[in-house]
Amino acid sequence: MSLAITKSRGKLGIDAPEISVEVHLSNGLPAFNIVGLPETSVKESKDRVRSAIINSHFEFPARRITVNLAPADIPKEGSRFDLAIAIGILAASDQIPKRSLHKYEFISELALSGDLRSVDSMLPSAQRCCDSGRELVLAASNADEAALVPTLSVLSATHLLEVSAHLHARQLIEPWVISTKGKTYPAHELRDVIGQHHAKRALEIAATGGHHIILCGPPGTGKTMLASRLGGILPSMSNPEAIAVAAIHSVAGKGLRKDIWSRPFRAPHHTASAMALVGGGRTPKPGEISLAHNGVLFLDELPEFSRHVLEVLREPLESGHIMISRIAAQTCFPAQFQLVAAMNPCP
Question: Where in the chain is the domain with CATH 3.30.230.10?
């Protein structure tokens, strides 16, 4: 039977729903169709996959190829399905074995040469893959990010031929082990500040009780310097908290944080729009308040912010999350942050 099914992961906010990539080869005029609510970037994968298979010295089947991305009611975007589609075509044409495909999930973009390229929002996909009990096959440049999930078997490859050799059991890919780095100390520490005893005492009380704080003083008195050091006296993040923060940055397309154990510090400019602050877009992405999750959001020159921008902070300050509604779906991003504001006194 010229049918093969591979597993991959979609992208829906900070969630990663399971996507079944069903590939069927049938008789008829040669064609390559992708169905299942694919967006333009997914439709373009036809040309990438075709060239990658040919340049990897496989035979691209001259048959009618139908690729179904199920479930069909979830919008599919990005190039993350390239590898799963290519493996499905090779398995359906009996160029690689099908017997072990159910053990893996494939997430990677393919270059025309067959090289594997990184994609964004990898950490949420790795978490869901771990829950499903499968192994994750991805590009080597995404391996460190996915390996943050404990107990997940991460198989990193640089080329389609390496994945094929692993599935043939000719040359197995060793599970990726992330380099262990101890927790680093923050670059900015409160003890470096000389003087400002009242302000430092206020920051210590705010850090102890998780209170929001506003700093008022003339320009040049060190309000920004003090605010940037609040994260250094907050309690250390636990492993689940660090992974949650890293997942939000991954969804935002910012890759893996340099120091995943440090609390985030975000300081948007006072000209930032409401959408930049809370998130949004046609495909919702997290804003500054979500990027500051488990960390500090610093609003300098508070009176210069638009009233509308400040009003949208009411809900996340009370609930700890923000719900972004669009016609297709609703996306909820966490936003549990500590607000620090600064302003100059009235002249």
Answer: 3-167
- Ordered DSSP codes for 23-43: EEEESSS-EEEEESSB-HHHH
User: For domain 190-343, which architecture applies?
Assistant: 3-Layer(aba) Sandwich (3.40)
What CATH architecture is 3-167? 2-Layer Sandwich (3.30)
7's CB contacts (< 8 A; 6+ apart) are 18, 19, 20, 21, 84, 101, 102, 104, 105, 106, 134
151 burial via Cβ count (<10 Å: 0-12, 13-18, 19+): exposed
Convert the pLDDT of each residue in 167-218 to its tens digit: 999 999 999 988 755 555 566 788 888 888 999 999 999 999 999 999 999 9
| From-to residues of CATH 3.40.50.300 in the chain | 190-343
What digits encode the pLDDT tens for the residues 243-280?
999 999 999 988 888 888 889 999 999 999 999 999 98
pTM comes to: 0.89
